[in-house]
Automatic annotation (TrEMBL), chain A:
It comes from the Bacteria. The chain crosses the membrane at residues 106-125. SUPFAM superfamilies: lambda repressor-like DNA-binding domains. The keyword Acyltransferase does not apply. Residues 12-72 form the HTH cro/C1-type domain. Pfam families: HTH_25, RodZ_C. This is Helix-turn-helix domain-containing protein. Keywords: Membrane, Transmembrane, Transmembrane helix.
From TrEMBL, chain B:
It comes from Igneacidithiobacillus copahuensis. ATP binds at T20, A21, N22, G169, G170, T171, E217, E218, I219, K220, G297, G298, A299, L300. Belongs to the FtsA/MreB family. Forms polymers. This is Cell shape-determining protein MreB. One of its GO terms (biological process) is cell morphogenesis. Coiled coil: none annotated. CDD domains: ASKHA_NBD_MreB-like. Forms membrane-associated dynamic filaments that are essential for cell shape determination. Acts by regulating cell wall synthesis and cell elongation, and thus cell shape. A feedback loop between cell geometry and MreB localization may maintain elongated cell shape by targeting cell wall growth to regions of negative cell wall curvature.
Amino acid sequence: MDEGFVELLAQLRSARVARGWDLAQAAQKLHITSTQITALEEGRFDELPGAAFARGYLRNYARLLDLDVEPLLAAYDRYQGGSGLEASKVVLPRSELPLLDYSGKMLFFSLLLAVALILLGWWLWGRGGSTSSPAPVATATSVSAAQHSAAQVVMSTPAEPAALTGSAFSPAATAATTSVTASTLSSQVGALAFHFTGDCWVQVRDASGNIVLSTLGRAGQDVSVTQGQPPYRILVGKASAVQITYAGKPVTLPANALNVARMQVGMAPVTASSNSAKLAPTPLAAAQSQQSSRPSAATASSAGVAVASDISTFSEVAHATSVTHSAS
Amino acid sequence: MIFKRFLGLFSSDLAVDLGTANTLIYVRGKGIVLSEPSVVAIRIGRHGADRRTQAVGEEAKRMLGRTPANIIAIRPLKDGVIADFQITEAMLKHFIKRVHPQRFLSPSPRIIVCVPYGATQVERRAIRESAQSAGAREVHLIEEPMAAAIGAGLPVAEPTASMVVDIGGGTTEVGVIALGGVVYSQSVRVGGDKMDEAIVNYIRRNYGMLIGESTAEEIKKTIGCAYPLSDTLSMEVRGRNLAEGVPRTFSISSNEILEAMQEPLGAIVGAIKLALEQTPPELAGDIAERGMVLTGGGALVRDLDRLIMEETGLPVIVAEDPLTCVARGGGRALEELERLGEVFAEE
């Protein structure tokens, strides 16, 4: 602080004393506190609220005492480096950190966790897919001990009781015929054809769950499926607009309330062909033994036909005819 | 983003205090480069067609009330907001051209415009669009109390309250500011213009003399005061005598002007008192300790600070160079345009 400024500030005090005002009186006239008056007179400006206020108080005080304001303010500006004249330096309070700190480490670990979860999900899904495939094979074995596969249609809901009854009343009858039918049918395995009479979407999955056909058929179009392993699981969008044939025989569609129909067509092929030769006589013998009890065989055959007409499967028809043959 | 920064290197950004009485323009890095009255004089062609700008700013202000039939001098802003959209645009264009000469390939400037806190959405949009059509690349709005406080050098970022009273031509804005934001603000449409009107009315009523608004402003600047002075001032005024219909000269004293301005001064003090009533107690404590700062042209009225000091019992200081406070505050905001997104007002 230069001497001129100190002198000017001392003038403030002497002018106040000359008027006979004590600190409190001067403070009351300026509406500030007496400590602020002392700070002004002694040049301790850091005790005042800020440069802009200190300058204003100084001006008000000099004016109150009828002193010349300009030299005082000029000296003040020299002393403070003009800080009471400038606009505010800091306009916004500095903010420290974001509210939630997503630092690199946390991001890395969450990424790692996400990758692990994805891998786990993939592995579980893969396992689930492989276990689901043996199911149709199981149904097939329940019907025929002689494994030579032919096509067999098993309709999901309505066919099951029929199939069950069929297997219940004469397991032997059906078993007996397989050896006969197997050779004739094996050539036609997989010939699944669709004839569209209207627009209808169709999806076909083979035994391993792969989609072998997924299309929107237009009216008059013919689509056939040759690849993939039976049994096929078919999903039809509009049952009234499609005719399905499997191995040359039409497949009747279940009359669902909605147009969507699901069904399974065909039987899983089994490779153990050497067993069939050995096994074949036994069912035949069983069938022959049924000859003695004709009425039961007749009922069996009629039941077989009934099953065939219900579900209209080529194989069952073959079974039934062969049973009747053997019965006669 | 990068492209914007690149453009920023070549364009000069402007802060505009578009006031009712005066328009000030601050150019980044240069300071205040323009301070002109917000007046436009328009020459109207034959049959009312083909309007052309005759003069803008100081020159146009001298024409106010002195124009022939084919020239009209207009103040396009009223009460702090745009009253005539087209003329405001023309005026802004003229001022911007003067401070930001258009060169081939030079990008248009970014502009910060100060708006009254009490401006409605429609008024804010009008100001924004006016600036946009005047050739701004980007327009940001900043509320006047905030700009005034920044320009007055108040510690706006601190967690203590700063009270600022910006008495402009059309509006008086009372703002309480803390932590870089406006905590409370009150805007009354009373300012220098209302004081001029009050003087015109007073002289007509008491002297039977008619004076123009420019003369009233002159009287206000010369002898106007807001608190009884120890030695009375007086000045000679010329006007038209209403009874005789001839121009006459008469003398008027500062005490009479004080009496004339009682109503607008009372409205300003009322707005300040209302703001003090509405301020949260912690901040009111800060204001009691530090006081308030007067900015704007109205702060130049003699002893207005003393009137407010006596009426409120709080310390009142007048900011340095109060006329330019808002523009300087806008300019300060301009310098930190990238960082200060939060300071700007929403539309």
